[in-house]
Amino acid sequence: MSENATVLLPPRAELRRMVPLFAGRGTYRLVIAVSNVVLATAWGPARFAGYAAAMGAFTVLSFLTALGVEKSALKLIPRARRTGPELITAFVLLPAVLGAGCLVWVAVVATDPLTFAAGALAIGLGANQVLVGLHRVQGRPGLDVANHVALVAGLVVTTLAAALGDLGPTAFVGWTVALVTGLNAALLVELRPRTFRTPRRAVLRAASGTSMLMSAGEVAAAAVVSLVFVVLAHSPHHEQAGALFLAVGVSSLLVKAFGYLLRVVQPQVSVALHPAGAGAAVRARSARNARLLVVAGTPYLIVVTALAVLAGRAGLAPDVVVLLVLYLACAPLIFGMGTINFLLENGGRAMLRRTAAGSVAGLAVAAPAAYLFISHFGAAGGLAAIALGELVHAAAVLHVPERTP
């Protein structure tokens, strides 16, 4: 990989443009983490646990709505010469249809206004990330920054209202839904719909097929997170939902920053891996790294999970601290598989299918593991199930073919 590093990194001018993007998204994630702490203090453990359970349960809807469109756009559009406007249209229609379907589902399953608002917010945030990604791939990164500045401002205002006034969870999420909806409408207008071009059937197939394959990893991982919160909320350890939500909020600063770094460099990586044979070295290195991750990561996960469970039962630290340390301890596994998945999904079609299938395998193992682990170990078991899904994903991509068809 080292010999390819200069090819995969963007030029210095592009690196300078990354700084505001990182600052905008990084500040947003930091404010979310701080906001969660303030809200937990203002609402109390029981009320915050209900909020955390609702928000955590619908995590997957953001990724179902987006369905990898941002990643697909950053992969396909830089390669497109004549189909760019058609791809843009397809990448707007796809999340619009998926988001509408998800919203109908939320309306059916929602048991109270907070649950409905949490689902609507997850859908809106998924669409938001698609829209800023489409602007960024068209050379308008400033709108990405402005969007996140507005999100930060809105989050600060509503958090202060909850801390100093009487703004409860439902109203808090409702105002955020209104803000995100307004931002999405403005971003859509700025895409200049007059320049859209009706996509041909072949373009629609390419856009939707690539999006589904590239989203498999994120959707599967998010589905495990949502499942963990659902199972936890209906288990004897339901009071740990708030602590888990706080821990995930803090640790996700690193996870989101890492994921966004991959999105920023994706256009250059996609172009670099596009020529025939360019990804052969990447495939071989990815297989070696996946093998190392499985062999070293499995006993490592067992040890760190056991230590976290023992520390929690002995009362050596508050639940949120134990969970945060465990989540950070699992970060190398998550980042390692994230890097492997990123390179494979930007390679040939066979590699993309392989890593997508691997993510489904990870979900198939992590889902029952979450139920079993949470029943015995509480929230710490849920985090272990999330990391286990990454290890199973790595095991499934060990046999990536050396030559793509």
Automatic annotation (TrEMBL):
Keywords: Membrane, Transmembrane, Transmembrane helix
Name this polypeptide is given: Polysaccharide biosynthesis protein
Upper lineage: Bacteria, Bacillati, Actinomycetota, Actinomycetes, Micromonosporales
Spans traversing the lipid bilayer: 26-43, 49-67, 87-108, 114-134, 146-165, 171-191, 212-235, 241-262, 292-314, 320-344, 356-374
Source species: Actinoplanes friuliensis DSM 7358
